[in-house]
Design goal:
The chain is α+β, with helices and mostly antiparallel strands. Helix content is 24%, strand content 20%. The strands form three sheets. It has a four-stranded antiparallel beta sheet with strand order 1-6-7-5. Strands 2-3-4-8 form a four-stranded antiparallel beta sheet. The chain has a two-stranded antiparallel sheet with strand order 9-10. The longest helix is centred in the last third of the chain and has 20 residues. It binds zinc ion (ZN). Zinc ion binds next to loops.
Length: 294
């Protein structure tokens, strides 16, 4: 599932390709995405030029002439694909096909249809239910340690789940939560409410650092994410823990562990991210470790 770095990669390439282009026509597949696409979409988009491409968390906001915003979310498998001139064969699962006046095309393709495309008046964007619940975007407003600690005050949820909560920080998903916690040296099982300010400071510093590094590699490709040119991102080669269960920690050589938290995989180094007994959320029933007695 695309996270902030993948969506930011798409945003930058949309800005470099469709900004200033004028829409000639729009066709819809008629299939329902996360929500139904309004039949009026082609008529409302026709003739308008694209004036900006913004992002908040995992949401893209394509700004249009006349005070309209095309809001989109890639969901599980959504992609925006751009061609200067349309290829002979259009791929399957294109649900929104935008033709520009100069012959270029922009397609929203989504095989699994968990994505979202919605047209809003600019004035309605801030109160759109999808955006209104989001916390600050960490690339626009880097998180501060004391604000994170205050938000986590009393929280019994794990710090991993805390980072995934889009109401706290918008844009971090399963891949980057594991990566951020590894670099910050914090055990993902710790209860968020028990972290010290020095640990929140490490996490606050690593959030933008990890995300920026991933953006510079055009994101990470697992399964379906592609850039605007249908190419995979290359950050996967630089991941320190995610999807590396059993492989050596790049820092200390200890085998990386995989656990399940909230039905999602978490990867961490048991040595670099030393568990403190107090304040950890149990992830499995207690068991006795076998010890070698001497
Ligand atoms: Zn390690």
């Amino acid at each position: 599932m695309p996270e902030l770095p993948e969506v930011e990669t798409v945003r930058r390439s949309l800005e470099a390709t469709v900004l200033g282009r004028r829409i000639r026509s729009v066709r819809l597949s008629g299939a329902r995405l996360r929500t139904a696409l309004p039949a009026t979409l082609p008529r409302r988009l026709r003739g308008r030029a694209i004036t900006g491409v913004e992002r908040h968390g995992k949401y893209l906001l394509v700004r249009l002439e006349g005070g309209l915003t095309l809001l989109s979310h890639l969901g599980m498998s959504g992609r925006w694909l751009f061609h200067r001139s349309p290829p002979a064969d259009r791929p399957d699962h294109v649900h929104v096909a935008i033709d520009f006046a100069d012959g270029a095309v922009l397609w929203f393709q989504d095989p699994r249809r968990f994505g979202l495309v919605r047209l809003l008046a600019d004035a309605a964007v801030a109160r759109d239910p999808a955006l209104a619940r989001l916390g600050p975007d960490p690339m626009h407003e880097p998180p501060a340690a004391d604000a994170l600690r205050a938000a986590a005050h009393g929280s019994r949820t794990s710090v991993k789940s805390f980072l995934l909560d889009q109401r706290r920080v918008a844009g971090i998903g399963n891949i980057y939560a594991s990566e951020i916690l590894h670099r910050a040296g914090v055990d993902p099982r710790r209860r968020a409410g028990t972290l010290r300010i020095s640990e929140w400071a490490a996490i606050a510093a690593q959030i933008p650092a990890v995300l920026e590094e991933a953006i510079s590699s055009f994101g990470t490709t697992f399964r379906s994410y592609r850039t605007l040119w249908n190419e995979p991102g290359s950050y996967g080669e630089r991941l320190r823990v995610y999807d590396r269960a059993g492989e050596e920690c790049r820092r200390c050589g200890t085998p990386i562990r995989r656990i399940v938290q909230g039905q999602r995989s978490t990867y961490f180094c048991p040595s670099c991210q030393g568990r403190r007994r107090a304040g950890a959320v149990p992830t499995r029933p207690r068991h006795h470790r076998s010890r070698t007695r001497t």
